[in-house]
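Quick log. Single chain, no ligands specified.
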Amino acid sequence: MSGPLRVLLAGLRAAAIAVLLFATLYPFAWMLSTAFKQNSEILVFPPRILPTHPTLDHFREVFLGGTVGPYFANSLAATAVSTLLTLALATPAAFALASHRFPGDSGRHLGLGFLLLRFLPPFAIVIPLFVMMRSAGLIDTVVALIVVYTAFHLPLAIWIIQPAVSQIPREITEAAAVDMAGPLRTFWSIILPLLRPSIATAAAFCTIFSWNEFFFSLILTTNKAKTFPVLVSSFVTDSGPEWGTIAATSLVAITPIVVLCVLLQRHLVGGLTSGAVR
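-> predicted structure:
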């Protein structure tokens, strides 16, 4: 490849990266700016990126209104418990699917069937789910959200972890069997540490999807168990959206996810580059 052509391709690559970064970061920058703008500045034309007179009024409204705590606690409980439960079920399931020798190629098709369940439209099963939860007395409870989130994210977690299990050499488990280690000891002491990057990747995806989930929280809860996304939607009133409060609440909502991704960054890179997500 000639020098000018190499320079041209490098320039096109840099331009594409710049465009993608702008498209990704611009909405976040606008939300950050809106959270600190006064109401009179938010909808001015031409729009201003930076607030002329920064204010913390929107954050005061969010934190001093007394509504953030319960919503945050509900989101945190539903997300944390459902993620832990999903990982506890998905890891041994992925290990079984990857290590067990199914007749023919049925194991791969079974794993694909699990993944297809993840793409089931939520509105297609919301009525049966609502009836089941009402019959069990779980409407407007965090338990209902935990059950639904776990059921929906379990196929995704299995799909993420299973390829990593398949990449573990069979000689490792055979050596453990020679050393008189049973299946549970082999899984807990040998396989599980090797799956740490993939488990972290699955945990990050499950956490993000659960934290941002809106539809089931809106349908299955009425008052006591509503989550943070429902709180954000509540600021769309009859008089119009309260853009400043929405931006401030959204900024507070994304903070735990950003912190989580930073903490899991090293494991995420390992999980994504080792074939955990294809």
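DSSP finds 14 helices and two strands in the chain.
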